[in-house]
Amino acid sequence: MTKYTSLTTAAVLATSVLAACAMTAGPASATTTSAAASPAPNADHRLDGVWRADGYGTILRITGTTFEAYDTTAISCLRDPQIEDDGVSTFTAGPGPDRARWHIDSNVNARTLIRLPALPAACTQPTPATPIETFDVFWQTFAENYPFFAQHGVDWNQVYAAYRPQVTAKTTDAQLRDILAAMIKPLNDAHVGLVPDGPPIFTIRPGTQFPSSQLDDQAVALIEHADLPPTPGSPAPALQTWCQGRVGFAELPGQVGYLRISGFTGFTSQDTYAANAAAFSAALDDIFTAERTGGPDHMRGLILDLRVNGGGDDPLGLTLASRLTGSTFFAYAKQARDDPADPDRYTVPQPLLVHPSTTPHYSGPISILTSGSTFSAGETITQALLDRSPRPVVVGENTQGVFSDLLDRQLPNGWTFGLPNEKYLNPLGRTYDITGVPPDIRVLTFTPEQFADGTDPAFQAALHTLSAG
Question: d(Cα 254, Cα 261) in Å, to the nearest integer?
Fold first, then answer.
């Protein structure tokens, strides 16, 4: 449903304030939240009924201010309460009597809903929880939704032929877990994961590190030692932190700012989108003050450090982008695979724009630090800023290469799994999936040798781009 924190970091399937584009409003709307909240009314129940989300394999049955969600494939339909509890959903009628829009607060885009005459019969019948049924639903879900088999050089039909004969009615949970894990391992996709009974199973792009808390702690220690040392006659620049330590800022000599963000979620103990958005906006208010953005001692350059960033919610990335511009610019366009039989068919791209914040914002030179440990929402904000003016200089290494929100799914035996089904397009209609956003200036970052030597050459390169400009 939304992004992982990532799965590699959070080790569970988890959660991905401003939409950059206004969405079309219809004559009737309804907001659905958890049972403890007070949802807005569904005006005259115009949205009551059964709907299919175009490109997501999800069926919703809306009744008043509540809804039920079902994961579907050509061979299955499973109730998915995780979708019902994942953020605040807003439904908007139109255009036409058989269309509606579905927006989730932690997503930047809206999903098109198509009215169905009734709930499919498969959704009213229990799905057998046998090893065979579980295997088949797992394989079928990827076959219908995964966009990147060709890019990874994986023939999913051959995967079926190789592994399906190994599954029988007597296959144990441990055996089935190993089979499913072997199927997805060659994808090396950090947005693909399985959560069986036991530790989650995931992979990342070879040659990269996942953004663990240990790596994050090592990075902070190195930055404070190598990049924020005291200078003669002055104390070391202090790295002030917000959002449970996930946001940090320091003022460097030469009126340069240093902004470090290790994720776009986990900003509060509640860890809801609304609470995180409020905390993040408050932190940005403290950082992008009128003095720093427009006073006589305003920042003349900014280093945005995303080298260890586990991702999170894209709208928070666009909130940051709105504080980093004085003019509107294109962020990216989103589309989802929408033909189960054709991996080259997608929904119509939804363009997302970044508008300048009405609060103080910075519009000067930026250098962005990235690495293979820049995941998900850390990558979408990097991609978005590439069309900012002046264009930032990206320093470091390619990002991880996983951009899509997560299609979180259930299996008949109770296990959960996730996979991407979307593309984030640049102005040329291309994506940075698989390879990641490449740097303009390539510098190895956070290597064992650098941790041992206490050096951070990528930071120095980023600082040089600002002084050279």
Answer: 22
